[in-house]
Amino acid sequence: MNTIKMAITLLLLSWHTCWAATPLGDIDVKLEVTAQPRIEIEKPHGGWYDNIKLHNSPENHAVYEVEVPVAVKLRRQEGYQISIKNPLILTRQSDAFSAIEQTFSPAEVRWGNNRTNLRLLSAVPESFSVPPQATRHTTTDYVLHISAKAPAGDNTAGKYHGQLTLVFEVNS
């Protein structure tokens, strides 16, 4: 019986020794990185607008407007959607001289890459696409145009303010 135990032990030790002496070798691992689609919105030379000031239109002094350039950078995407979260309404800040609240008409907000072909934005998303490129990274310049009609009547002078929230989403 001891002889059998000894034979089995020697057999296992010799097998273990052979197994440990076999080199493991290289292990190939395939790594695949998937970059998610991404959109960046900024001024053409970087940064963003803290404030945008509207000015009298030369054609119609009751209309205030502004055009600002915006760069849209897309990665791994050929299009995006843009919408307005809430209508832009410019309201006069109340002060000691005027207790009456004055507001502009709801502003028209337009967007496009060509001044002659700007699309009116609303809460319903508008889709925009860019031509596909080999690099899958594109930067396209656009124009944001805002216009609103000033309130009519007396006592309309003052400082007006409003908040515009644009929602950009990559196409899914």
Automatic annotation (TrEMBL):
UniProt signal peptide: 1-20
Domain of life, per lineage: Bacteria
UniProt keyword terms in alphabetical order: Signal
Entry protein name: Alpha-related fimbriae minor subunit 2
Organism field: Yersinia pseudotuberculosis
